[in-house]
Write a structure and sequence with these properties.
This protein is an all-alpha fold and 61 residues long. It has a single domain, classed as 2-Layer Sandwich (Alpha-Beta Plaits), CATH 3.30.70.
């Protein structure tokens, strides 16, 4: 029998909030101290496009 943990994927895109603040908030909310708490990956976003309106950049977010 394999004991599987429920997995959740959260994607967060922020424009004006320092990365460290976002990471700290996620860690505070998600940490249980148990294996499987997850990982946080940080990467740049080149652009965003809202399909319906064709807005780009921060207006699309």
């Amino acid at each position: 029998v394999v004991d599987l943990h429920q997995k959740v994927k959260i994607e967060c895109v922020v424009a004006d909030t320092p990365t460290g603040d976002v990471v700290e908030a996620i860690q505070a909310a998600a940490s249980t101290g148990e294996p499987g708490d997850g990982k946080i990956f940080i990467s740049p976003i080149d652009d965003a496009v809202q399909i319906r309106t064709n807005k780009r950049g921060t207006e699309a977010v």
